[in-house]
Amino acid sequence: MSVIAVMGAGKIGEALLSGLLHGGRRPGDLLFTERHPERAAELTSRYGVEAVEVDEAAKRADVLVVAVKPQDIDPVLVELAPLLGPSSLVVSLCAGLPTALYERRLADGVPVVRVMPNTPMVVGEAMSAISPGRYATAEHLALVEELLACVGKVVRVPESQQDAVTALSGSGPAYFFFLVEAMIDAGILLGLPRAVAEKLIIQSAVGASKMLADTGEHPVTLREAVTSPAGTTINAIRELENHGVRAALIAAIEAARDRSVELGKAHEDQPDKR
Ligand SMILES: NC(=O)c1ccc[n+]([C@@H]2O[C@H](COP(=O)([O-])OP(=O)(O)OC[C@H]3O[C@@H](n4cnc5c(N)ncnc54)[C@H](OP(=O)(O)O)[C@@H]3O)[C@@H](O)[C@H]2O)c1
After folding, report:
1. pLDDT in tens, 18-74
2. Calpha distance 254→170 (Å, rounded)
3. Domain named Pyrroline-5-carboxylate reductase catalytic N-terminal: which ranges (predicted)?
4. Domains of the chain (ranges plus CATH)?
5. 260 lines ligand 1 (CB under 6 A)
6. Does residue 69 line the site of ligand 1, with CB under 6 A?
7. Is the overall model pTM greater than 0.85, yes or no?
8. How many CB atoms lie within 10 A of CB 53?
């Protein structure tokens, strides 16, 4: 079984460690790197996983999962560059960072798989999209798929689609939270206590998500089933259309895609291997 090191045990890194343990990996097969000793000690006592320095992680792990913020990638690559060879596998969870960036900065032949996860990973319900870099094989992809299946669902996409994925499912949970927040406000406007409005909307969101996931029905069919002639729902839908909510969502997701492209370009002029 491969040894996996998570570099940067923040929200996503911790969620992955926790998911891998739930999925049956032993604490001894996992490692993590972390800048703050108190945070490292807290994670070790919570999960029984050892915190190590980067060089130790590179020496002992077969798979290095990079889970630092994209803007923190530079020092990580500088540290990893002299330590990794083609027998390692680098898995990048960093939004917007292309596999080509790693390939330019690491030794020739180091395989890289790019992943776009999302925050529901913390409850084991992530949506992750994975793309191979130029040196990643079918076996590498299968291994990454197996690891991420411990924390949710996984799809394979060409790397050219990762900016769209980032805008759709990477940021996606935020759109749903925004919608829930607005609907709770509506409940308050209508005179409901906040706690009641929250309960009504959150459970409606859970129920609707479960129907979408479990029935396999198209969202239009599910919506039509709630939309009776001259009823309440069709009046609400007319207002949503009048206010351009559909167009706003499409424009919002397009803007998120454009920002992802821009963030990827920010690393294009960084120097090659040193
Ligand atoms: N959150 C999301 O919705 C989401 C969705 C999809 C993808 N992602 C990607 O997942 C990655 C992690 O995101 P996150 O939300 O988990 O961020 P986060 O909570 O800030 O976690 C990043 C962690 O990495 C640590 N770190 C930074 N540089 C390090 C280094 N050189 N060595 C060891 N640890 C280091 C940070 O420590 P400090 O506290 O000292 O900074 C922090 O604990 C990002 O690249 C992001 O693009 C996030």
Report:
1. 999 998 999 999 999 999 999 999 999 999 999 999 999 999 999 999 999 998 999
2. 13
3. 4-96
4. 4-159 (3.40.50.720), 172-243 (1.10.3730.10)
5. no
6. yes
7. yes
8. 10
